[in-house]
Amino acid sequence: MNRELVRIYVVNAQYSLALGVGGVMLTYFALARDLDLGTISLLTALSAVTQMGARLPLGWALRYVTDRFVMLVALATLIASMMSALAIPGLAGLVVAQLLQGTSRAGFWSASQTHVIRAAAVPVKGLSRSTLITSACSIAGPLVAGWLAGVNLPLTAWVVAAAALLGFIVAWTMRPFPVFKPPAQPQEGKVWRRPGVRMASAGALVGGAWHVTLSTFVPVVLTEAGWRPLGIGVVGAIANGMLLVGTTVCGQLKPRAFAVGITIGGVTGALGIACLGLASVVPAITIGALVLSGAGTGAVMTLGPALAAETVHAEERGAAVVVTGSFRAGALLAVPLAASGLTLVLPVALVMSLLGTVVGLPVLAVGHGQRRRTRQAGRAEVPAAGPDAAPGLAVEATSPAIG
After folding, report:
1. In the chain, how many domains are there?
2. Which of 130, 197, 279, 376 is exposed most, by the fewest CB atoms within 10 A?
3. How far is residue 285 CA from its own chain's centroid?
4. What's the pLDDT tens digit per position in 195-214?
5. Which residues, in sequence order, are CB contacts of 130 under 8 Å at separation 6+?
């Protein structure tokens, strides 16, 4: 493993831990300031909206600034978020903190994945290790936040700032890769229209929906079904553990298996959401689906960015990663809003079944189209293999631009 990868893994670990602690800390701050659940939900939505908006110009920005620069700004913004929550009293401080945190998340994750892809000899293996590290630190974050909040709530903000500052120092030592210079008029058209990027984006949609479901709706649905908090916590922990398993396994796959892996992982993740509706009827199916959906989500988180990077020009990789990340951010915003609206007229269990179906259909449809194009490309190679075929014709006709 080269030194650049070690550095980016350390930065990712520091940021994931800081964000995991900081996200929960802001909720504790809101409770300490006597804000109700509705206001806290709006603050969370505000962060998601900011993250979505901040992602949109990142593909363009990476043509002018390095991914390392974006990460440094994101880490500094996270520190500023924590200081705002401490320094500005009342609701205003939390609004500023959530705005800054959403901006930080958007910039860091897009730039971080881009840097891993460029630093690793085999992008999927680099992404697999990175996802393992960030997921483990994200799981540990809320535990650390709960313990620190019980000791001293303001101290939690200083710990987050210190972790982000350490990440900033390590990021400063990383190699500044050149800015991206994509082709002026690519033959394949816009990046977001490429089959591989569409496949990765459909998987990212499921990944975002799964994460927000596990953290927000699983406790609600299972509590209504009569489950005890300990049982809910155990199921959530096992599902997160399976996410790490899925990430590890998929890190060994070859590029030709990426699309299939995303399809299977995406459908599995969507089924985990949909089967929440069966919690009070057939709990065994709900448990099994949630556990397997963790592995599926690990697959789409690892294979999605790798597929997007493999199927575009090397100078378009930054834009491809930003596009797929935007779909994940969109799910983090849209799923809670849709669920809030639907629960006004439908039971929560039915709402989750509908949402699971809706987020699973795109990955199934795009995966089917991807397999059909692969079969057509295979048939197109057959005549090119004959003695009268022009040399290299089959490869030029069917090979995607790979950086």
Report:
1. 2
2. 376
3. 26
4. 788 998 999 999 989 888 88
5. 8, 9, 12, 112, 113, 116
Q: 148 and 223 in one domain?
A: no
Q: The domain containing residue 344 runs over which residues?
A: 186-403
Residues found in the chain: 403
Residue 305 within a domain: yes
Look at residue 7 in the predicted model and tell me its pLDDT: 94
Domain end (from 113, 145, 176) = 176
Q: pLDDT tens digits, residue range 209-233?
A: 988 888 777 777 787 778 776 777 7
Is residue 390 pLDDT above 50, yes or no?
no
- Report the phi/psi class of residue 90: left, alpha or beta, with left for phi > 0 and alpha for psi in -120 to 50: left
Tell me the pTM.
Answer: 0.76
Q: Over the stretch 102-154, which tens digit does the pLDDT of each residue have?
A: 999 989 988 998 899 888 888 888 888 888 898 888 778 777 877 887 778 88
Per-residue pLDDT at 152: 83
In whole angstroms, what is the distance from residue 340 CA to residue 41 CA? 10
Structure tokens at 230: 């300990």
d(CA 327, CA 270): 15
Q: Enumerate residues 6+ apart whose C-beta is below 8 A from 3.
A: none
Give the chain's count of helices (H) and strands (E): 15, 0
In angstroms, rounded to a whole number, what is the distance separating the alpha carbons of residues 357 and 96? 35
How far is 141 from 21, CA to CA, in rounded Å?
4
CB 112 within 8 A of CB 19: no
Residue found by looking up tokens 């920005």 in the block: 61
Distance CA(93)–CA(105), nearest Å, equals 18
Q: Do 273 and 244 belong together in one domain?
A: yes
Angle in degrees, CA 29, 153, 41, rounded to 5: 20
Task: State pLDDT tens for residues 267-301.
Answer: 999 999 999 888 777 888 888 998 899 999 999 98
* Exposure letters 98-114 (e unless 16+ CB within 10 A, then b): bbbbbbbbbbbbbbbbb
Looking at residue 160, which CATH number applies to its domain? Answer: 1.20.1250.20
**Res 376: pLDDT:** 59
Neighbours of 131 (CB within 10 A): 24
Same domain for 146 and 207, yes or no, is no
- Residue 181 in any domain: the answer is no
Residues 207 and 161 in one domain: no
